[in-house]
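Lab notebook, bench 4. The sequencing result for the construct came back, and we need a structural model before the next group meeting so we can plan mutations. Quick request posted to the team channel:

Model the 3D structure of this chain.
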Amino acid sequence: MRFFGESLIGIVNGVDSVFPDPSGAQSDAVGLALQIGGGADLNLSRHFAVRLFQADWLRTQFPNGTTNVQNNLQLDTGIVFRFPQ
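Done. Here's the predicted structure in C-alpha coordinate form:
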Protein backbone atom coordinates (compact mmCIF):
# COMPACT_ATOMS: atom_id res chain seq x y z
CA MET A 1 0.00 0.00 0.00
CA ARG A 2 1.31 3.46 -0.88
CA PHE A 3 -0.24 6.68 0.40
CA PHE A 4 0.38 10.03 -1.26
CA GLY A 5 -0.52 13.69 -0.96
CA GLU A 6 -0.26 16.67 -3.26
CA SER A 7 -0.84 20.40 -3.37
CA LEU A 8 -0.84 22.92 -6.21
CA ILE A 9 -1.29 26.68 -6.36
CA GLY A 10 -1.38 28.90 -9.41
CA ILE A 11 -3.27 31.09 -11.82
CA VAL A 12 -6.42 29.87 -13.59
CA ASN A 13 -7.93 31.30 -16.80
CA GLY A 14 -11.64 31.12 -17.59
CA VAL A 15 -12.72 31.68 -21.20
CA ASP A 16 -15.93 31.51 -23.26
CA SER A 17 -18.22 31.88 -20.25
CA VAL A 18 -20.11 34.63 -18.39
CA PHE A 19 -18.39 36.26 -15.42
CA PRO A 20 -20.45 38.98 -13.66
CA ASP A 21 -18.68 42.30 -13.16
CA PRO A 22 -19.90 45.58 -11.59
CA SER A 23 -19.60 47.21 -15.03
CA GLY A 24 -21.34 44.32 -16.85
CA ALA A 25 -20.50 40.75 -17.82
CA GLN A 26 -17.12 39.55 -19.06
CA SER A 27 -16.46 36.55 -21.32
CA ASP A 28 -13.10 35.72 -19.71
CA ALA A 29 -11.47 36.02 -16.28
CA VAL A 30 -8.23 35.28 -14.46
CA GLY A 31 -8.10 34.10 -10.84
CA LEU A 32 -6.21 32.18 -8.20
CA ALA A 33 -6.49 28.38 -7.91
CA LEU A 34 -5.56 26.02 -5.06
CA GLN A 35 -5.74 22.22 -5.15
CA ILE A 36 -5.06 19.90 -2.20
CA GLY A 37 -5.55 16.15 -2.16
CA GLY A 38 -4.24 12.67 -1.62
CA GLY A 39 -5.02 9.01 -1.94
CA ALA A 40 -3.85 5.41 -1.72
CA ASP A 41 -2.46 2.91 -4.23
CA LEU A 42 -2.43 -0.86 -3.74
CA ASN A 43 0.80 -2.15 -5.32
CA LEU A 44 0.37 -5.27 -7.48
CA SER A 45 3.94 -5.36 -8.82
CA ARG A 46 6.88 -3.01 -9.27
CA HIS A 47 5.21 -1.32 -12.27
CA PHE A 48 1.46 -1.78 -11.66
CA ALA A 49 -0.92 -0.67 -8.92
CA VAL A 50 -4.62 -0.11 -8.35
CA ARG A 51 -5.55 3.39 -7.24
CA LEU A 52 -8.04 2.61 -4.47
CA PHE A 53 -9.04 6.25 -4.14
CA GLN A 54 -7.87 9.77 -4.79
CA ALA A 55 -9.68 12.83 -3.43
CA ASP A 56 -8.86 16.40 -4.45
CA TRP A 57 -10.36 19.71 -3.34
CA LEU A 58 -10.08 22.50 -5.93
CA ARG A 59 -10.80 26.12 -5.00
CA THR A 60 -10.92 28.78 -7.72
CA GLN A 61 -11.57 32.51 -7.47
CA PHE A 62 -13.56 33.75 -10.47
CA PRO A 63 -16.07 36.60 -10.44
CA ASN A 64 -19.54 35.12 -9.82
CA GLY A 65 -21.59 38.00 -8.46
CA THR A 66 -21.47 36.86 -4.80
CA THR A 67 -18.39 35.44 -3.02
CA ASN A 68 -16.16 35.02 -6.14
CA VAL A 69 -15.17 31.55 -4.83
CA GLN A 70 -15.86 28.12 -6.33
CA ASN A 71 -15.20 24.87 -4.45
CA ASN A 72 -15.01 21.51 -6.24
CA LEU A 73 -14.43 17.95 -5.04
CA GLN A 74 -12.96 15.34 -7.37
CA LEU A 75 -12.95 11.61 -6.53
CA ASP A 76 -10.95 9.14 -8.64
CA THR A 77 -10.02 5.49 -8.86
CA GLY A 78 -8.08 3.59 -11.51
CA ILE A 79 -5.02 1.68 -12.65
CA VAL A 80 -1.47 2.99 -12.22
CA PHE A 81 1.44 2.14 -14.50
CA ARG A 82 4.91 3.18 -13.33
CA PHE A 83 7.66 3.55 -15.93
CA PRO A 84 10.98 1.86 -15.08
CA GLN A 85 13.75 4.20 -13.98
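The mean pLDDT is 93.
Will bring this to the meeting.
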